[in-house]
Amino acid sequence: MDETRVLTRNIREGREPVWRAEYEAAGGWEAFKKALAEFKPTEVGELVKEAGLRGRGGAGFPTGVKWSFMPRFEERPEERPAHVYLVINADEMEPGTFKDRLLMEGDPHQLIEAMAISSYAIGADIAYVFLRGEYVECQRRLQKAIDEATEAGYLGNDILGSGYNLKIYLHMSAGRYICGEESALLSALEGRRAVPRHKPPFPAASGLFGQPTTVNNVETICNVPHIVSNGADWYKQLGAHKDGGTKLFGASGHVNRPGLAEMPLGTRMGDLLEHFGGIREGRRLKALLPGGGSTPLLTADHLDTPMDYEGVGAAGSRLGTGTMVVMDETTPIVGVLKNLEHFYAQESCGWCTPCRDGLPWVERILTNLEAGKGNPGDIELLELHTKLLGPGKTFCAHAPGAMGPLESGLKYFRDELAALIPDDSDTLSLTEPANTASNSQV
Amino acid sequence: MIELSQTEIEAIRHEMSLYEDPGAATIEALKIVQERRGWVSDEALEAAAVVVGVTPTQMEAVATFYNLIFRQPVGRHVIMICDSISCYLTGYEEILAYLKKTLGIEFGQTTPDDRFTLLPICCLGDCDNGPSMRVGEDYHGRLTPERVDAILAEYK
């Protein structure tokens, strides 16, 4: 299948970035000029809503709707708070996800222009990129793009004579997956522990430093200049199924050609797998995580699934980040689940009890099962945890996300897991606690 | 209490100027101090807290939460091997065992010559190149024991 390159159109093999002159020569920064000249801020939001753009960071919330929650001060400037913020979630740490790094390294101006348009749309005067600490190459390139854009008059005060002011800053994070949860991210950006906040109030009402704030994912926002340039109808027809637009899909694990490809949303799962070279060594597919570690597993029975929000949802999982983690028929499912639950146990912020205590418990059961030390009732105990840590039982979506792969693993591979319990095991044994110490032991 | 260098203080003050609340620069301050010293000692943490205008306790709460802040001395090069799902599927366990054997250390330890510290890291975003690790700021993917030997030799 051919790629449909919209977000990646400037991105080269080897990711040698496109700087300002080249970006402009390819039509770059024109969408921002168009937005300033032809659209009121709220009209940009309406356009994005009409295009049907949905969040690419995992949750899939409609972007234009999210923006519409922001309070407006155009008619009452005297009530405008000190600042209104746009925050870009570039804390890419979802297991198996490596797409935003490509966009930031390969075409840094695209993100900065997208941030400028989106900030204009929501009335923000300061925008931050919350960047994971390991992405130092992204940091260098984004900072250079910000400097170039400032020099060209695209950022700063009274931008291109429009009266609009915007500054963009980078925040380099210092680790921890929970920072990707939008309210935890705001806590981190305020220089505190990345503990999620109660909602409501939602960030649009009280976000960064208590001011109106929108948090959007990198890939999501990179769609905005293209929607502004080409219109909502053009955008909608890019999709192959229900949802509009393209998606950066990826495959890692047991495929022959792991990597990324921009394809229409709704591309058939089987076609995507084929694009990435199929399963290694001529083996068969056992299972895959369609969009990162917290999306429920799918199997070879789901190859006809259209990979968009609707399609993957109907198959019992979530599109998530769209980067598939692929497992061939030789993969023990217990090892996969243990690896994932170890990750979630370690990355729990520790704020609420079900997550802090439940996830290590789950990991311990899986560790025992893998070691052949399982006990009768372990499967039922795991099943119970998918309820105890499910949606509505915890402060944020971390633990429910962790239960996605576990619940689906129990659904599709229950017999394989149950067969790990030794026949002679009829008493509960006290076992070694799993190592769930945080990385920050040093 | 130790004094931070003028360069460190200026770098921290610059970061403080980027936030509505200057106290938000705790993480940047810790990173600035760590960049120069390799890790964050109690004394350096206190000195950074004074510059940012938060209490040492607030600074410590942040320092112990984030895994890229080191509160103990580390070697000249910190190896972070990705232990997440894509690397697990492509041979992380073999590479980890090889690293531990070659370096003679476990997670959280430093080689006696202070050259390497070995730590696990969650998904590095290098999933199509698994198994993957980071040495200092450099990414290295598609690891095999032979490639690990060649990579380690680059770091003195």
Automatic annotation (TrEMBL), chain A:
EC number: 7.1.1.-
Annotated protein name in UniProt: NADH-quinone oxidoreductase subunit F
Entry's Gene Ontology molecular function annotations: 4 iron, 4 sulfur cluster binding; FMN binding; metal ion binding; NAD binding; NADH dehydrogenase (ubiquinone) activity; oxidoreductase activity; quinone binding
Alphabetical list of Pfam families matching this protein: Complex1_51K, NADH_4Fe-4S, SLBB_2
Protein family membership: Belongs to the complex I 51 kDa subunit family.
Cofactor(s) the record lists: FMN; [4Fe-4S] cluster
Swiss-Prot/TrEMBL keywords: 4Fe-4S, Flavoprotein, FMN, Iron, Iron-sulfur, Metal-binding, NAD, Oxidoreductase, Quinone, Translocase
Species annotation: Salinisphaera orenii YIM 95161
InterPro entries on file: NADH-UbQ_OxRdtase_51kDa_CS (IPR001949), NADH-UbQ_OxRdtase_suF (IPR011537), Nuo51_FMN-bd (IPR011538), Nuo51_FMN-bd_sf (IPR037225), Nuop51_4Fe4S-bd (IPR019575), Nuop51_4Fe4S-bd_sf (IPR037207), SLBB_dom (IPR054765)
Domain NADH-ubiquinone oxidoreductase 51kDa subunit iron-sulphur binding: 334-379
Recorded catalytic activity of this chain's protein: a quinone + NADH + 5 H(+)(in) = a quinol + NAD(+) + 4 H(+)(out)
Functional description taken from the UniProt entry: NDH-1 shuttles electrons from NADH, via FMN and iron-sulfur (Fe-S) centers, to quinones in the respiratory chain.
TrEMBL record, chain B:
Catalysis performed (reactions): a quinone + NADH + 5 H(+)(in) = a quinol + NAD(+) + 4 H(+)(out)
Pfam families: 2Fe-2S_thioredx
Cofactor details (free text): Binds 1 [2Fe-2S] cluster.
Binding partners and assembly: Composed of 13 different subunits. Subunits NuoCD, E, F, and G constitute the peripheral sector of the complex.
Family of the protein in this entry: Belongs to the complex I 24 kDa subunit family.
Keyword Oxidoreductase: yes
Cofactor: [2Fe-2S] cluster
InterPro entries in alphabetical order: NuoE-like, NuoE_dom, NuoE_N, Thioredoxin-like_sf
Binding, [2Fe-2S] cluster: C82, C87, C123, C127
Keyword Oxidoreductase: yes
Protein name: NADH-quinone oxidoreductase subunit E
UniProt entry keywords in alphabetical sequence: 2Fe-2S, Iron, Iron-sulfur, Metal-binding, Oxidoreductase
Residue spans crossing the bilayer: none
GO molecular function: 2 iron, 2 sulfur cluster binding; metal ion binding; NADH dehydrogenase activity
